[in-house]
Amino acid sequence: MAKYKIAWLPGDGVGNDVMEATRIVLDGLKLDAEYIQGDIGWEFWINEGEPLPKRTIDMMKTTDCALFGAITSKPKEEAAEELDPKLKDKGLVYFSPIVRLRQEFNLHTNLRPCKAYPGNPLNLKDGIDLVVFRENTEGMYGGVEFHPIPQEVFDALAKNHPKMKKFSEYGLENLAMSTRIMSRQKCRNIVTQAFEYAKKYGYKSVTVVDKPNVLRETGGLMIRTAREVAKQYPGIEMWETNIDAQMMWLVKNPMDYGVMVAENMFGDILSDLAAQLVGGLGFASSGNIGDGYAVFEPTHGSAPKYAGKYKVNPMAMFLTAKLMLDWLGENKMAQKLEDAIAFVIKDGKVRTYDMGGSNTTLEIAKAVCAAF
Ligand code: IPM
Ligand code: MG
């Protein structure tokens, strides 16, 4: 029996290309694992009305962790349009399967490292080393949304908040509402994870990014909770910044920052910007980590126009596999993989189009294997 059982979820579009490349790399490392293919993504939405079938969740529960490629997400109406005719008019509503996985498995911590590997021509500056901790299960992406707003919900809000009344003039059918519900427990958890990481890897600061001057209750809860957590880590400075200004400062002074932590949506935004500083989404890895289970995925999407063309950069997916190896406790193997990735980037002979080269996704995999 293999040492690890890993759910293998390529998903949509280029997810398949980069997963195929990653398998070459994991086999090159001789990871002792059994990979179990799982159904997830757009084709299952179209044909079954369910992009994340229950059989996939059941299968995942028998594995140690999952490796996931990419997913196509579309707004509600567009998604409904594409359903198989026999499934239309059933009131099916599309919901991003990766967001659901995060909630279903309580993968509360989204870890997104963004490191400028020397020699990458796409680095904004050399030496950038950022790590984003994104709360992954609640906040603005918690999924509690309404359109129209039910009368009962409207009345309860109007009764409890003076600012709600002014919306009544538009009519409920013209009102949509997405909530940003945050718990002290999840705020504490994500900030603690960020501080623990800073302590373990020697970062001198943790920057808590929110917008408490406007989002006084949710942003306020995050900041107040973070201040409490920070007291347990006297050697590490905590900086508090607003999301808008932080975007500007990150571009201006990226070297000033190390570990950053934010609520779900702000962390989503922050991590794309951080990725661009170190070469774009082709280099951005992520781990959705819970207490006993984790799903690892590159930050990039499914890029449908490149699907099956073996054109996209698989480095983000390889760095994602590195995160998985670390989480599994295979630290030596993880280091070996990262060293080989760093070598191929610096060497510069084998590169995908985004880096100015013309090599294929699979050629990058072979170059990484040759560097082991
Ligand atoms: C990400 C993506 C997802 C998210 C989308 C595809 C739902 O942008 O992982 O950052 O917003 O979480
Ligand atoms: Mg995103």
Can you tell me about this structure?
- The protein is of the alpha/beta class and 372 residues long.
- It has 13 helices and twelve strands.
- The chain has helices at 15-28, 42-48, 54-60, 76-81, 97-104, 151-160, 184-201, 218-230, 243-252, 264-277, 315-328, 331-347, 361-370; strands spanning 4-11, 33-37, 65-70, 109-115, 129-135, 145-146, 177-178, 205-210, 237-242, 259-262, 285-289, 294-298.
- The strands form two sheets. The chain has a ten-stranded mixed β-sheet, sandwiched between helices.
- Strand 1 (4-11), helix 1 (15-28) and strand 2 (33-37) form a beta-alpha-beta unit.
- The chain starts with a strand and ends with a helix.
- It binds 3-isopropylmalic acid (IPM) and magnesium ion.
- Magnesium ion binds at residues 268, 272.
Brief digest:
With 372 residues, the chain is of the alpha/beta class. Helices cover 40% and strands 17% of the residues.
Instruction: Quickly count the helices.
Output: 13
* Ligand identities: 3-isopropylmalic acid, magnesium ion
Question: What structural class do helix, strand and pairing data support?
Answer: alpha/beta
Radius of gyration: 21 Å
Give me the count of strands: 12
Q: Low-confidence parts lasting 5 or more residues at pLDDT below 50?
A: none
Distance between the termini: 25 Å
How would you characterize the largest beta sheet? 10 strands, mixed
Q: What fraction strand?
A: 15-25%
Helix amount, in percent?
Answer: 25-40%
| Helix/strand order, N-terminal first | EHEHHEHHEEEHEHEHEHEHEEHHH
Give the spatial strand order of the biggest sheet: 2-1-3-12-11-4-5-10-8-9
